[in-house]
Structures are given as structure tokens and as C-alpha cells.
């Protein structure tokens, strides 16, 4: 169980009064490193936290700073942040049946700034990247020149991208909805909870098929690559979601149905870069 993420969830239930708090100022660009990450320690944020920590262990020259976004102060809704990631805007809560305090609670992080590159249409601003998969691919191109976490072979690269997008289009949205209806929905909706619970388990089953080598005869240590595979961006993208399975309401007995997935989760969990990317330094300190 990921206690730090559970504490984050329980500590960030935002009321209507909290939503009117004054937005805080972000770190001045002069204090930022070449790469600057806006994050909070959620699965999507942890993808990039882990990626940067992994890269730092390989490439000594990498320089990055990070800034923890306090969603209770609406920092991610400020004009300053929206210039970097317009997907931080409030949802149109009046078009839904969900009360505003639930509909607009979360912003959209992570976002990454590359202070060594200029924005395409604003040379006075740095280049910004939103969406966690896009950030991973940006880091793969700009930093991982030796393909330590990627592949030079086109077919291996394609396989890694397939699983990366599987995580983005499947695991993330489905388990994210499971989290919402299990933990945050203003009323318990058994159909929604059952639907997203079963779909998350189905997707875990797909991962089990890949890792077990059920149809290839080759058991894999990691999701992509020839033979047992190699630790890659695909693993970084999916592991943070599987890591919070208990928070999503998936029991230990249910996870035991996927022994190869469970083994993969343990192997990735033991990596120094993963441990550092999930460490307490990325936890927002409450006053």
C-alpha cells in the first residue's frame, strides 16, 4: 500500500471555501534549473518524478528542479500556470450534475519547462510540455541520447510505444475513474464502481498476458523489448498506477490473480530511481 499517496488523497479534499483562496506565486524562472517540473505526487506526477530521477542516475549533466503544486490554493488554475498548461482550467461544472467542489477539485499536472528552449510563438518564454506521456517522449528525445530507457530498433520502439499508450488510454483513465467513484463521488454509485473496478482488473489481466508470455512462450521481466525486455518509458508510465492498487479498492487477493504483474511491480519498486521519485521530498508540506 502506498501510504504517502493515501495521505495525499485524504489531505486534499477541497471545499468551496478553499477554492476561493488566493492563488500562490510560482517559483521565479531565475531560480529554476534547465528542466523544471511542476508536479504533485499522484500517479501522473510520479511518472515524471521517476523519469527525471532515473535520468539523473545515468546522465550526470542533467539539471532539473521541481515545484510542488498545491491544488488547495488553486495554483494550477492561475493564469501563470495556464500559460504552461491550458488543461488546468476549471471544468464546466454547470454542465454536469457533479457539485463544483467535486468537479473542479483537481488541476492538470505534471507540466515540464525546458528553460534551454524558447516557446514556439513567444521567444520570451521557455518551452513547456504538458501531458505525462508527451513529457516522457520529450525526455527520451532531448535527454536519453543513449536510449538507456528507449530502443533504437524500430520494432522494439514500437512495442514500447504500444504499452506506453496502453497505459495512457487504458490503465490511467479507467483506474482514475475507479479512484474517483470509490473515494470522491458525492454519492456511491454501485454501477460505476463495479464497471471501473472490473475494467481495471481486465486491464491488469492484459498486462499479465504480456509479462507471462502466454502467447509468445517468453516470460518478460519488463513490458517491452526482445526476450525478457528492458526497463523503459512504458514501465515508468504504468507502474505508478499499479502501485496504488489498494487505494483504488483492488484487494491483495485480486492482485494475486496476476502473479507476473505482481512480480513486475516488485522488481520496478526496488529501483533506486523509482524509490527516489516516490520519496517524501515530493510530498507537499502542509502548514
Automatic annotation (TrEMBL):
It comes from Puccinia sorghi. It comes from the Eukaryota. This is Glutathione S-transferase. Residues 31-147 form the GST N-terminal domain. SUPFAM superfamilies: GST C-terminal domain-like, Thioredoxin-like. Pfam families: GST_C_3, GST_N. Belongs to the GST superfamily. Residues 9-30 are annotated as: Disordered. Signal peptide: none annotated. CDD domains: GST_N_Ure2p_like. Residues 153-287 form the GST C-terminal domain. Residues 21-30 have a biased composition (Polar residues).
Amino acid at each position: 500500500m502506498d501510504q504517502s499517496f493515501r495521505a495525499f488523497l485524504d489531505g486534499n479534499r477541497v471545499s468551496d471555501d478553499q477554492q476561493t483562496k488566493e492563488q500562490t506565486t510560482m517559483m521565479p524562472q531565475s531560480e529554476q534549473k534547465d528542466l523544471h517540473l511542476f508536479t504533485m505526487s499522484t500517479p501522473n506526477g510520479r511518472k515524471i518524478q521517476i523519469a527525471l530521477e532515473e535520468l539523473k542516475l545515468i546522465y550526470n549533466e542533467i539539471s532539473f528542479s521541481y515545484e510542488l503544486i498545491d491544488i488547495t490554493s488553486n495554483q494550477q488554475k492561475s493564469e501563470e500556470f495556464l500559460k504552461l498548461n491550458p488543461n488546468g482550467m476549471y471544468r464546466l461544472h454547470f454542465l454536469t450534475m457533479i457539485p463544483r467542489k467535486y468537479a473542479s477539485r483537481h488541476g492538470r499536472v505534471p507540466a515540464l519547462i525546458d528553460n534551454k528552449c524558447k516557446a514556439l510563438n513567444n521567444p520570451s518564454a521557455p518551452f513547456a510540455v504538458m501531458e505525462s506521456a508527451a513529457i516522457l517522449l520529450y525526455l527520451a528525445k532531448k535527454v536519453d541520447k543513449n536510449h538507456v530507457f528507449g530502443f533504437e530498433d524500430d520494432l522494439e520502439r514500437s512495442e514500447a510505444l504500444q504499452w506506453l499508450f496502453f497505459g495512457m488510454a487504458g490503465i490511467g483513465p479507467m483506474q482514475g475513474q475507479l479512484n474517483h467513484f470509490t473515494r470522491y463521488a458525492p454519492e456511491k454509485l454501485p454501477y460505476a464502481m463495479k464497471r471501473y473496478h472490473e475494467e481495471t482488473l481486465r486491464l491488469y489481466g492484459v498486462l499479465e498476458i504480456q509479462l507471462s508470455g502466454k502467447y509468445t512462450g517468453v516470460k518478460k521481466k519488463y513490458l517491452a523489448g526482445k526476450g525478457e525486455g528492458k526497463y523503459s518509458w512504458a514501465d515508468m508510465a504504468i507502474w505508478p498506477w499499479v502501485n496504488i492498487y489498494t487505494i483504488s479498492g483492488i484487494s491483495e487477493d485480486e492482485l494475486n490473480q496476476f502473479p507476473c504483474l505482481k512480480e513486475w511491480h516488485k522488481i520496478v519498486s526496488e529501483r533506486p530511481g523509482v524509490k527516489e521519485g516516490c520519496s517524501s521530498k515530493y510530498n507537499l508540506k502542509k502548514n
